[in-house]
TrEMBL record:
Enzyme class (EC, first level): ligase
UniProt catalytic activity: tRNA(Sec) + L-serine + ATP = L-seryl-tRNA(Sec) + AMP + diphosphate + H(+); tRNA(Ser) + L-serine + ATP = L-seryl-tRNA(Ser) + AMP + diphosphate + H(+)
Designated name of the protein: Serine--tRNA ligase
Metabolic or biological pathway, per its Swiss-Prot or TrEMBL entry: Aminoacyl-tRNA biosynthesis; selenocysteinyl-tRNA(Sec) biosynthesis; L-seryl-tRNA(Sec) from L-serine and tRNA(Sec): step 1/1
Sequence ranges assigned to domain Aminoacyl-transfer RNA synthetases class-II family profile in this UniProt record: 138-409
Role description: Catalyzes the attachment of serine to tRNA(Ser). Is also able to aminoacylate tRNA(Sec) with serine, to form the misacylated tRNA L-seryl-tRNA(Sec), which will be further converted into selenocysteinyl-tRNA(Sec).
Tagged with keyword Chaperone: no
Length: 424
């Protein structure tokens, strides 16, 4: 969430920056509400001061044996007016917080301004696209003989958009997850296994609510109001909500494996079939709490950890710095790591590393303290490390052989009992 003091200090410049993410944003309604709130708060404070003054005078007059009915009536009237004003303020404050929380984070000054993802800037490439000497197959065609997934039976039990892995498909998925966790732990990340269902305030803290309420899976009954996490970022961000972390403990580097749940499953069509976009997918997440001056260094470390996984797998990828209009709601800077999928003839994101500055920390009230100084908001960063579904597609399609078999990357073989190939 943005600091209202920052918005007040230069509303036209803040609005201009916000519009590079969403051109429809106008700060006028928020600023009018802010002004009204401040006026009413001032009035409420004045009323309460008068009430206290009269109450004190009543006590003095009573001790002197004087009549106080008129003053007591006045105090009663003031109290009634103050109570009514407090009720108005509660409604206005709720509306104010709703409007403020719907504003995205400000992009950093060096981010390219555009609404078109085609303008994203490729800043690095590693490896090369595979040149096939035979007619290659997409992952669904390969699966017909390999039997790694069963989309028909998963649709039978859950509907479209829910995957079911089986046999070597399930084992290969776990191999990827174990390899990624091992890599991040070696790179200094602490492993967590957080809950998959979290409270509303936890989802709000990460920036998913209120704007993206309709994209969440939720459990609402008479006993629980919980949300299925769309990413482990939500849970990891909430670990230190309402805490003050000692400065010497920062940065905190966390990693977690979780299934992720999202209502939107993407557009229909051959490019979105199979594992490309699902309601449920597996992901290993990276998350960092850090001092503001160290957040750029943490960003580079997280990006390097994500890249190391793809390099170990021998999969060609590219890094793209996202333009303002393509960044996520809470991000100030984002680099997507994209792999090329031959069966789709395009690049797809398998990791997105974002610096959210103090945006999430202000929502979650996650702070740090240097010695006896006043607490400051931390910076938070998140990054996929990696999402397995598209990575699985990349692995299968790029490692296929002419006979339909799949060569397993060497780094995964120890998790598969030394298996070198998946045979039809």
């Amino acid at each position: 969430m943005l600091d209202i003091k920052l918005i007040r200090s230069n509303p036209s410049e803040i609005e201009r920056k916000l519009q590079t993410k969403d051109p429809s944003i106008s700060l006028e309604p928020l600023l009018k509400l802010d002004q009204l709130l401040r006026e009413k708060k001032t009035k409420a404070e004045e009323l309460k001061a008068h009430r206290n003054e009269f109450s004190k005078k009543i006590g003095e007059l009573k001790r002197q044996g004087q009549e106080v009915k008129e003053l007591m009536d006045k105090v009663s009237s003031i109290s009634e007016e103050a109570h009514k004003l407090d009720q108005e303020l509660a409604i206005l404050e709720k509306e104010f917080m709703d409007q403020l929380s719907r504003l995205p984070n400000l992009p950093m000054d060096d981010i390219k301004i555009s609404e078109d993802p085609k303008d994203n800037v490729v800043i690095k490439e590693w490896g090369q696209k595979r040149a096939f000497s035979f007619p290659f197959k997409n992952h669904l065609e390969l699966n017909e003989k390999l039997g790694l997934f069963d989309f028909q039976r998963s649709a039978k039990i859950s509907g479209a958009g829910w995957p079911a892995y089986k046999n070597l498909g399930a084992r290969l998925e776990w191999a990827l997850i174990n390899y990624m966790i091992e890599t991040h732990v070696k790179n200094g990340f602490t492993l967590w296994m957080p809950p998959l269902l979290v409270k509303e305030e936890t989802v709000f803290g990460s920036g998913q609510l209120p704007k993206f309420e309709n994209q969440q899976f939720k459990l609402h009954d008479e006993d629980f109001k919980l949300y299925l996490i769309p990413t482990a970022e939500v849970a990891l961000n909430g670990l230190h909500a309402d805490e003050i972390i000692p400065s010497e403990e920062l940065p905190l580097r966390y990693t977690a494996y979780t299934p992720c749940f999202r209502r939107e499953a993407g557009a229909a069509g051959k490019q979105e079939r199979g594992l490309i976009r699902m309601h449920q997918f597996n992901k290993v997440e990276m998350f960092c709490f850090t001092k503001p001056e160290d957040s750029n260094a943490c960003f580079d470390e997280m990006l390097a950890s994500a890249e190391k996984i793809l390099q170990g797998l021998g999969i060609h990828y590219r890094n793209t710095l996202l333009v303002t209009g393509d960044m996520s709601f809470a991000a100030a800077r984002t680099v997507d790591v994209e792999v090329f999928l031959p069966g789709q003839d395009r690049y797809y994101e398998v990791s997105s590393v974002s610096n959210c500055t103090d945006y999430q920390a202000r929502r979650s009230q996650t702070r740090f303290r240097k010695g006896n100084e006043k607490p400051e908001l931390v910076h938070t960063l998140n990054g996929s490390g990696l999402a397995t579904s598209r990575l699985m597609v990349a692995l299968l399609e790029n490692n296929q052989n002419e006979d339909g078999s799949i060569t397993i990357p060497e780094v995964l073989r120890k998790y598969l009992g030394g298996l070198e190939k998946i045979e039809p």
